[in-house]
Specification:
eight-stranded antiparallel sheet, 10 helices
Length: 388
């Protein structure tokens, strides 16, 4: 794996204080062995087919969902697919996988490493939360016959650590606020580190627009709060909302669509049909409107990804930490196939939009791409090449 370092861009102190995932580790996951991905404000993961670009983003998304409190069975519906192909079972026929990340923020760099048993049954068998050499939380499977792991967290009081059981189907770091009292300096450090990791992981939006579903109007019965789904199926509904709520951002979207779609673009909007459904159009000017259903796949993916980059947690279907103000959170967009079905002009225009947006510090992006050559001279872009 080779890494192309980004051009250094100074960030304001407020941005640096927000928890951010700066490294993803795939110690043993799917086709990865010992893979380490450094993550910047805008990171492009490239490599040939089968090199593990999509599985790297799946691992990040899995950590994000675990950080939000999801159960292992919901996050890994097919856990055997996460086990490296040549991984050998032990004497008890157990096999598993290991992933982790580093999160920078006010508590300093904090490492989270997770070991999951996939066979014969899905469970956490080990978790480690550490800041430098100091282990803040550690869990281990002591008795395979019980659905518990033994947890020990840093106390720095009369006793150096506190021990208690935790469930083996959830991320222990996400449960720390429910278990740690925060009475000693050591316990407060554990709480701060756990909160930093959870805030960074939960503020993630996995996005892979599906043109086939974006073309159809959004039925009135399916219309909800106007939050964009990961597949962008409800694009028309979100355009209806964002055009009315924020004229400035909508103008930026129209400008971006103009740069990536064929023909003149005066506006992009949605309107209700006779039965109450929402259908989206591109206004060509002079009374000519093109339904989104007539756009090409590349144009639709470009439009959807531009919308994602120009909105935020209030519009995207993410689950941020309600207890932490948005000003202290940074949304990370996980875009599998970031350049899928885009031509060279669209890819460059979308990449430039992503670089400008991520440069402001409110959004980070990790995108899997087939070709990152266009980013060789782009400021603020990190390229991670997964060599076979």
């Amino acid at each position: 794996m080779t890494v192309q370092s980004p051009v250094t861009v100074a960030e304001p102190p407020a941005v640096q204080d927000r928890p951010q995932v700066t490294e993803l580790r795939l110690s043993a996951f799917a086709g990865h062995r010992g893979t380490v991905l450094p993550l910047g404000p805008l990171t492009l993961v490239t490599g040939p087919s089968g090199s593990g670009k999509s599985s790297a983003l799946r691992a990040y998304e899995a950590l994000a969902r675990l950080g939000a409190g999801a159960e292992l069975s919901d996050v890994f519906p097919d856990p055997r697919a996460c086990v490296p192909e040549r991984a050998r079972a032990d004497g008890q026929r157990r096999r598993g996988f290991r992933i982790g990340c580093t999160v920078d923020g006010p508590a300093g760099p904090v490492r989270l490493d997770l070991a999951v048993q996939a066979e014969p049954e899905l469970r956490v068998v080990g978790e480690r939360l550490a800041r430098g050499p100091l282990v803040l939380l550690q869990t281990a499977l002591r008795d395979p016959g019980r659905r518990r792991v033994q947890a020990a967290w840093h106390t720095a009081g009369p006793s150096p650590v506190t021990r208690a059981p935790m469930p083996d189907d959830r991320l222990g770091t996400a449960l720390v606020p429910l278990r740690v009292a925060g009475k000693t300096a050591g316990q407060r450090l554990v709480l701060a580190a756990a909160e930093q990791v959870v805030v960074a992981l939960r503020s993630a939006f996995a996005c892979d627009p599906r043109p086939g579903r974006m073309r159809a109007p959004v039925p009135a019965a399916l219309a909800g709060p106007g939050r964009l789904l990961g597949g962008c199926d409800n694009l028309a509904e979100v355009l209806w909302r964002t055009r009315a709520e924020c004229a400035a951002r909508h103008a930026l979207l129209v400008s971006a669509v103009r740069a990536g779609c064929a023909g003149p673009v005066v506006d992009v909007f949605a309107q209700q049909t006779a039965d109450g459904a929402l259908e989206a159009y591109v206004d060509r000017g002079g009374g000519v409107r093109t339904p989104l259903g007539r756009l090409g796949d590349g144009e639709l993916r470009y439009l959807a990804l531009a919308l994602v980059l120009l909105t935020g947690p209030g519009v995207l279907a993410v689950d941020p930490v309600a207890e932490v103000p948005e000003a202290y959170q940074t949304l990370t967009v996980l875009a599998d196939g970031f350049d899928r079905r885009l031509d060279a002009r669209q890819t460059r225009a979308l990449g430039e939009l992503a670089a400008r947006t991520c440069g402001r510090g409110h959004i980070r992006l990790v995108g899997a791409v087939r070709d990152a050559s266009w980013a060789a001279d782009a400021a603020g872009v990190s390229v991670v090449d997964l060599e076979p």
